[in-house]
Specification:
15 helices, 6-stranded mixed β-sheet, alpha+beta
């Protein structure tokens, strides 16, 4: 007989931001779905349950007018199902095709990475968050979108403000204000370049949107560019830092990858399983459901914690360890089903084949700093927010 979701009230929001994994383990061991008061959300944390949900969009819908993503960004195709979702995804798809990524975007991303590392190479220490990962992710995304003449710091601020707003389950008024300001800045940046992309078709995302058949309406262009800036900047930024941290903290694994470059893709997949940059996203229960013995009422908003599912010990042995030699198994860092992340191949190419390999190749004896430890934070979005390193100049 199904029962109601248990409730956890003795966890704070700061606990989730600082280290969510002990809380995720407790939730997984308690029930398939648990209401966590600090998050004001019912969380699903087991791998098999999330896979089941992602394969059943009729019962567990992405459509939710009350979601924070809709409030902050507008009606994105990420929050649609069926034909509407497919139409939006099809409109942006030309910019994300593996062939376009390899032939058009990869050389541009490699050139950006070369320039950033050129600026580092005369020094012997840096925080890789601000010196490499954040500008790399920002400048690359700016190229893909088709923006012109925007400082990388501005795009990074817009992205952070949007994802803070989309994860603002504590309903902080200042976070909401900054997210709305970021949205207005993005709308203006789109307006400044849209006529150019209409006149001169090119591989950028904005060009794909305006030349889609039918062309994407301006309201949807604005909303979808915001969701791409929100997730498309923080994901590669955090994956760059997480993969670097995982290797520097595990010298034997690092040496194996350096000796055998064919391990780079494997190391990338393990990094995003270990600390998933996008750790949680919402769904709405469209009709009353029984999730592995827990009753979920119609209309309930639930949070799919893929960051927790990727450490589910029912699927992964020693899940808290970074281990590139673990048996190969699929993970949920890029979601599953119809909403599988459109930018997956961009991230795999940028992080696992360009940036981190080039970093280890060009900075000799790269190592963690003895003076300051790395600092990892977040739960809806999670990654290193500081990664001080040293190398031999």
């Amino acid at each position: 007989m199904a029962s109601a979701a248990p409730v956890i009230t003795d966890v704070t929001y700061e606990d989730l931001l600082a280290d969510p994994y002990p809380i995720f383990r407790r939730i997984r061991d308690t029930a398939p779905a648990v209401f966590v008061a600090a998050a004001n959300l019912t969380l699903v944390t087991r791998f098999d349950d999330i896979m089941r949900i992602e394969r059943d969009s009729a019962t567990y819908s992405s459509v939710n007018p009350a979601s924070l993503v809709n409030k902050v960004m507008g009606p994105t195709f990420m929050r649609k199902d069926g034909a509407e979702h497919s139409a939006g995804r099809k409109a942006v798809e030309p910019a994300f095709r593996p062939g376009i990524i390899k032939e058009h975007w990869a050389p541009k991303f490699a050139a950006i990475c070369e320039r950033l590392i050129d600026k580092l190479i005369e020094a012997d220490e840096a925080d890789l968050y601000s010196a490499l990962a954040a500008p790399m992710a920002s400048l690359s995304l700016m190229e893909m979108i088709g923006f012109k003449e925007i400082p990388w710091e501005t795009l990074a601020l817009w992205s952070q403000s949007l994802i803070d707003g989309a994860g603002n389950y504590s309903r902080d008024a200042d976070i909401e204000r900054k997210a709305m300001e970021a949205g207005a800045g993005i709308d203006a940046a789109i307006e400044a370049v849209l006529d150019h992309h209409r006149a001169y078709p090119n591989p950028s995302i904005l060009s794909a949107m305006v030349h889609a058949d039918p062309p994407m309406p301006i309201e949807e262009i604005r909303a979808n560019i915001k969701v791409i800036i929100g997730g498309g900047l923080n994901e590669p930024r955090d994956a760059i830092l997480t993969l670097t941290l995982g290797l520097l903290a595990n010298p034997a694994q690092k040496q194996s990858v350096l000796d055998k470059p064919e391990f780079w893709p494997v190391a990338f997949e393990e990094a995003v399983r270990w600390i998933s940059p996008i750790g949680m996203y919402p769904r709405r229960v469209a009709s009353e459901a029984d999730l592995s013995g827990v009753t979920l009422p119609e209309g309930l908003q639930i949070g799919l914690c893929v960051g927790a599912a990727n450490r589910d010990d029912r699927r992964f042995a020693d899940p808290d360890l970074f281990d590139i030699f673990r048996p190969r198994q699929s993970h949920l860092a890029f979601g599953a089903g119809p909403h599988f992340c459109a930018g997956t191949w961009v991230s795999r190419q940028t992080v696992g084949r360009i940036v981190v390999p080039m970093l280890f190749e060009r900075l000799a004896n790269l190592r963690l700093s003895d003076d300051a430890p790395p600092f990892v934070r977040g739960w809806v979005f999670r990654g290193p927010v500081s990664l001080p390193v040293r190398w031999d100049a």
